[in-house]
Amino acid sequence: MVASLVGLTVAISGCAPSQGAASPVAPARTVTQSAPAQSATPSAKEKAEEKEPPRQAPALPAPDEAIPKDPAQLARSLSGTVTELRRAVDDWRREGDPAKGQPPEAVVLLALHQQRVYRYLARNPKVASRTYAKLPKALAGQAKDNVTAARNLLSLVHPVSKPAKFRVQPPEPADVLLGHFRHAERRFGVDWEVLAAVMFVETKFGRVRSPSYVGAKGPMQFMPGTWAAYGMGGDIQDTRDALLAAANYLHASGAPRDYRRALYAYNHSQAYVDAVLLHAGQIKKDIRNYYAYYNWQVFVVTTRGDRRLTGP
Questions:
Q1: 3-state secondary structure 64-100
Q2: 24 backbone dihedrals φ, ψ, rounded to 5°
Q3: Confidence of residue 101 (pLDDT cuts 50, 70, 90)
Q4: Distance between CA atoms of 115 and 118, rounded to whole angstroms?
Q5: Compositionally biased, Basic and acidic residues: which spans (predicted)?
Q6: Which of 46-50, 70-74, 144-148 is least confident?
Q7: Long-range contacts made by residues 174-180, C-beta under 8 angstroms, separation at least 24?
Q8: Which pLDDT belongs to residue 31?
Q9: 45 versus 165: which is more confidently predicted?
């Protein structure tokens, strides 16, 4: 087994027209043309624009904002959060630079709130069922996938009961990671979305840097023996090398022909396999989900409740 689920114990929710040759100059001639009359009356479009003020985005959720307990309120909160998060991700990709620097505050706070809602629903199945019924159909499907994945992974977690130290750090920029995923996909034929989902589940895209309690290391949580066989001489702590090794191992274990078999070899748990494939499926449906997951934070599950280690 490659991965040891340190990411589960800790992180579970947790890329001007050119000028042609000069044309011969035509003989000069005088042309008289009347200018079109300019109407002083505003058009219907201009009237509408005058009446409609610029859109004001809702206030951003606080990092520890209370999660509504009523299903109707929870559905409204989740629907609004996802809508604003998609807009914020679009703005980030269009006007920012996901290959450099930090994500915008709006993306960070909205993604964190989305994550916290799904974690709450994963622990409250009855509330979750009533909430799904009040969501638009497309969002209900997305919510079910995320909640089911979170519930599966939480079932594998052993809560921390004693003081423990975990080493965390900021992840590499989102589009730098995306380049690594696609490079590994091209080399080994493993879908980049699956590789992203594995890294997301294991270490929240490299935020968790502590070795697991059984000795697995690096952003993809390799056991030393498996790394020796599939690491191709790379550095187990290097993100690019680790992703190539993961793609190498998954390909040798059956991917892309049989992802379930390959992922089960990576980690011997059907709950783990299901969770990874659910997250990968969401990324395939809408790449904005990758950017949302990238901004989900590291939580430690303790006997006294969850503790967030990263983020605002």
A1: CCCCCCCHHHHHHHHHHHHHHHHHHHHHHHHHCCCCC
A2: -60, 145
A3: confident
A4: 5
A5: 44-54
A6: 46-50
A7: 174/98, 174/99, 174/103, 174/290, 174/291, 174/294, 175/15, 175/97, 175/98, 175/99, 176/99, 177/205, 177/206, 177/239, 177/294, 178/15, 178/98, 178/290, 179/15, 179/99, 180/239, 180/240, 180/243
A8: 35
A9: 165
284, two tokens: 């395939």
Strand, helix or coil for residue 307: strand
- Separation between Cα atoms, residue 197 and residue 259, nearest integer Å: 12
Helix (H, G, I), strand (E, B) or coil at 160: strand
Which of 8, 12, 130 minimizes the C-alpha distance to 69? 130
Tokens of 259: 């992802």
User: C-alpha distances in angstroms, 300 versus 112, 151, 152, 280, 309?
Assistant: 15, 15, 16, 23, 7
Query: Which tokens belong to 114?
Result: 């989305």
Question: Could you tell me the sign of the dihedral formed by the alpha carbons of 61, 275, 93, 204, in that order?
Answer: positive
User: In the numeric block, which tokens belong to residue 77?
Assistant: 């909160």
